[in-house]
Amino acid sequence: MKFLKIKYIGAVLLGAALSSCATYYQIQSEFNQNFESGQLEQAARVLDENKRAGKKKARFLYYADQGVVNAMLGNLEESNKWFEKAYLFGEDYQNNYANVAASFLVNPNTIVYPGEDHEHLLLLYYKALNFLKLNDHESALVECRRLINRLNALSDRYKSDKKYRRDAFVHNLMGIIFEASGDVSNAFVAYRNAHNIYEQDYTRLFGLETPNQLKQDLLRTAYLNGYDSDLAFFERKFDLTYQHKPNAQELVFFWHNGLGPVKDEWSINFTTVANGDGFVTFTNEEYGLSFPYNTANAEGGGDLTDLRVFRVAFPKYVERKPYFERAVLETPGKRFALEKAEDINAVAFKTLEERMLQEMGKGLLRVALKKSVEMAIRNGGESEDGEEQTKEEKQEEAMREGLSFLVGVVNAATEKADTRNWQTIPHSIYYTRVPLKTGRQTVMLKTIAPSGATQKETFLFDVGPGETVFHTFHSLEYRR
After folding, report:
1. Is the pTM of this model over 0.85?
2. Which of 213, 314, 377, 422 is the one with CA 20 to 30 A from 349?
3. What is the DSSP letter of 99?
């Protein structure tokens, strides 16, 4: 009866646990609904009313979301305070090894979310843009130097040219900031680095070529620096002839199109094959996967082959395809196409793909450890072969069976992938430069869907002599 009661309790616990296995996107549903519909004040209210999230394991994402929402509301200084919190968290983050160990007996959500590589770069991108809008070029240059440090760390971590280890758009942004600050020498170097990465990495990894605007910026800064040989080299390479036209005043416009991917989970069943040498091999014919695991020293002498099929959960990205596919800026009598400079969606998919074997290894180790605990409980205190069990020993065995079953229920219920990621960033970033006259004037953004449907937004700028103004606009629409 006790064993049946434990089974009943286990079934109830399993149902309750599985019903609560929501993804991070679902947990944040109220905030996401407000943000995605453009109700930014309500989204900010949801964040402010959930201050405890700033102390929990996903606080990096709480800080980052606060930064984005405040930036879109025009609270640029407040936005940068939140982005700085997220940046410092990333700088100071250290693994709590006790929590890491615990994650192998539960799931990866029990540890602090440290942020993805591209998410840390985007933090500094947002900060730099906020400073540029505040006309604080010196502080924007500080973010440039931080970006350089982050990029160097990324390059050191990943040596292979098949991995995402260099960011073309970040170098492009640094060139824009250096040039706006009057440092055309460093601007040329940054533009050249950006072009090289587009040509050597981005075309191959993401199908993204050097934007025409970047080519013009590279030619212009070569001319302004008096680098005649470089100017001639890039004119030949781009098949362009540079005609210098001094830009007295101009607008640098960044269009954030759509929303980046969300993390979900997928699961896969592995069958165990005993090799007779203390190893069990997890195999999956559908995906052609094979992972050996040593069970010879498993505590309690558990035999994992008693259970032939295992379910393991892994993270995956789900793309949110933008509603709009292109955009132009219009001034009286002129039109300027916005060009894609960063495909954040593609970068996110690439970074997860690069570590998927590592994710699989961790997932299988997690399940193997869980099953070892189950077997240790089940097999502990067994009678010697040939000995008849007493009534008390039979009761104890039944209790062990029940407890092992209950542990198995908990293990199944807690097998969950880490679905946390920064979900308020754009799908892609586009940009262009627009020459402006001094004084007050309007610029129209026209966004265009594949169907031909358009949406228009008008912006008013008051431009001083020789000034470069910066602006961003985020189209939140995506195809559901």
Report:
1. no
2. 213
3. H
